[in-house]
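Title: Prediction job returns without error message
Component: structure pipeline
Severity: low
Priority: P3
Assignee: unassigned

Description:
Job completed but the reporter wants confirmation the result is attached to the right record. Sequence as submitted:
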Amino acid sequence: MNALLFGGVRRHHDFLYEAGYDVSWFIARDAQLPEDLSSPPRRLIAYAPDDPLELLVDLAKLLHAQFGFERVFAFHDDSQELAIRIAAALGLGFSVSIDALRNTRDKAATRRALAQAKVPSCWHASAVDAAALLRVLGYCILPKVVIKPVAGTGSRNVIAFEGPASVSRAQIDAQVSDYPVLVEAFLEGKEYSVETCSANGRHYVLGITEKFVESGSFVECGHLFPARLDATATAAITDYVARVLDAAGVDNTPTHTEIMLGADGPQLIETHTRVGGDWIPTLVHETTGIDLYELGARLQIGDAAAFVEQQCATPVYNGVCGIRYLMPGAYGGRVVKEVHGVDEARALPGVMEVYLVRKPGERIKQSRDSFSRLAYVRAKAATREELVDTLDAAIGSLRYEFE
């Protein structure tokens, strides 16, 4: 069985190799990892991010003529449009529709889809450049807004402005980049994400993740799964997310939907036609036994509705799992000399993994996004209280020394 694969989320790839697929893997050169050179695919094609679509289509056609691809796979939403276009050029299908992808990948399109379906959504406006953004902020009467790239990820270039009507052009030029941007009302409440698998028009909720965000930024610093919520809040969130996914036209894919639960109920932050990052699928697997990476691969292979229903209809939770990140704080730009306390953290009961993202000799990133974190600890416990205590103790054991 020959398959064409695009982009990352490598844990999905493992299932393809185990299933016996002979994989030809297209990956953008700036997304390639050193270990990819020794990975199982028979062919690894690294392309430049600015290579034209026509070149990649022609290359895929040449390979298809030689190997006769049966399937096209792409598990990250930043590669799925390329996969959809090339699949169409080869006369093959893809599990996610182009409309669903655009309605989720483009955050402005998401808001339009919700409005059309009459699904509650926050105030929003788009701006294609700094001049347009200044005009939008100038007539905004909200006390606080969030500005984000319409196709951004990882909390990159997400900022908030208080008193938006008084924001100057100089402030915009200094803090906003990566146009076009979406301007949204700042949502108050508690943040959660909903881990879902959709098949044949049904949305199966595997659970709700409680999220923790670094003070003063939008960067997530921890997750707990499953979240502790009462039945009313759980029903409100799951029903709302199903309406969001229906409005966007999402089907036959895992989804990761971030929401804010406030006094007026849940409100969408964003949704994706992929599994969540930050090891959330691992937290799900460790508490439910459900493998989101396998589900995602099976859904793209096709004819997986019965398997998805069997796995996801009634999830059973065994304990609580969580991850906590060590944030860079004021150490951006400094070089790591040594890291202390790793063995101490690993020895704590319930700790499953301690990983140093930034190691001795590496420079800490100046930016504030999901890619600038220093380390993480992953743990499991019988109760939320025990888990929080374990994560606090483990992350508190790690001490970075800088040059």
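Comment from assignee: result matches the submitted record. The mean pLDDT is 94.
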